[in-house]
Amino acid sequence: MDNFTFRVGMADARVAKCPSKLVTVGLGSCVGIVLYDKVSKISGLVHIMLPYSDQSKNNSNKLKFADTGITALIDMMLELGADRKYIISKIAGGAQMFATKANLDIMNIGARNVIATKEVLSSLNIPLVSEDTGGNYGRTIEFDCESGKLLIKTIGHGVKFI
Predict the structure, then answer these.
(1) Is 30 a known active-site residue?
(2) Which CATH architecture best describes the domain 5-161?
């Protein structure tokens, strides 16, 4: 990785200005949420693991959850100079990685993460402009702050931009 590529771990977030790239690997049931100020090109990426912080006893890491992770990422972007009215979003992940005998919603963390992410973005009036979610396979994503394109790499399902 070069000096302008920043890796985002699980339950982690980063913000960057052009000409940077933000990368996260290992999106199975987790969701990678990219927020992008299309005017200043200030970008952020959060790798969330669970839907809502109030459903967990251990909720000290705000970046672990869709509800608190997205709001924390917005705050980080605003500190860097982003303008909230220009922020859009793209998401990827939310897969059902393991088959279960009973089709219980509680076991489908991926779908619950995607639903929570969309609910939070909607409640914050942040447009979701594209997504690559669901399925039963993992993803690695790379966001280019200059172009605004999100590269999605998968094993067995190819590579694409959204």
Answers:
(1) yes
(2) 2-Layer Sandwich (3.30)
